[in-house]
């Protein structure tokens, strides 16, 4: 369904007082069109109806005329750069941003996230919640996987040796 049709349904939902349905439709649109700042702004407006300043700040974060209190509430809820990066739900490079301010905001969040996790990240490889919380990078992931593999091989070796001893 084209965004225009979905936005018409959002308007009808809001007029009928179906705010949760309108919010869900807008979340779907933002997911499908993450670079459309107008959709993000509409979603922020719906969150204002809910009285959710942190979520309104989340969806207005890329706008220059954003409300400072909402931005502060967003930053307090998503207090680390990796959390903010995931929360912004952007996909693709910052060059897709439709305004210079949005591009600068995205670049700043990505740079802070890269610094926090200790490796370069981009919007298509946002760190997982676990990696973002621990700050571990790809090397640490590789060591963890190698350790698990060694543990499994040791267990299998003991098990096979036990079976061989049992039948000898």
Explain what the structure shows.
With 168 residues, the protein is mostly helical. It folds into two domains: 3-136, Serine Threonine Protein Phosphatase 5, Tetratricopeptide repeat, CATH 1.25.40; 137-168. The protein contains nine helices and no strands. Helix 6 packs across helix 7. The radius of gyration is 23 Å and the shape is elongated. The N and C termini lie far apart (69 Å).
Question: Features of this protein?
Answer:
168 residues, mainly alpha, Serine Threonine Protein Phosphatase 5, Tetratricopeptide repeat, 2 domains, 9 helices, elongated
Helix fraction? over 70%
Task: State the CATH class of the largest domain.
Answer: Mainly Alpha
CATH architecture identity of the largest domain: Alpha Horseshoe
Residue runs with pLDDT of under 50 for 5 or more positions: none
Beginning-to-end CA distance, first to last residue: 69 Å
Summarize the structure.
This protein has about 170 residues and is mostly helical.
Write the topology of this structure.
Elements: H1 3-15, H2 19-32, H3 37-50, H4 53-60, H5 68-77, H6 81-88, H7 100-117, H8 129-134, H9 138-167
Helix pairs in contact: 1-2, 2-3, 3-4, 4-5, 6-7
């Amino acid at each position: 369904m084209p965004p225009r049709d979905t936005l018409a349904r959002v308007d009808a939902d809001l007029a009928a007082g179906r705010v949760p349905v309108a919010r869900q439709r807008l979340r779907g649109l933002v997911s499908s069109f993450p670079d459309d700042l107008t959709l993000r702004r509409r979603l922020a407006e719906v969150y204002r109806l809910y009285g959710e300043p942190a979520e309104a700040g989340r969806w207005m974060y890329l706008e220059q005329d954003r409300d400072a209190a909402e931005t502060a509430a967003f930053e307090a809820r998503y207090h680390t750069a990796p959390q903010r990066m995931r929360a912004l739900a952007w996909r693709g490079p910052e060059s897709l941003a439709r305004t210079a301010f949005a591009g600068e905001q995205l670049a700043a969040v990505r740079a802070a996230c890269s610094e926090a996790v200790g490796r370069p990240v981009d919007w298509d490889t946002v760190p997982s919640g676990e990696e973002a919380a621990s700050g571990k990078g790809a090397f640490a992931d590789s060591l963890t996987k190698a350790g698990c593999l060694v543990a499994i091989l040791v267990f299998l070796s003991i098990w096979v040796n036990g079976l061989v001893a049992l039948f000898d």
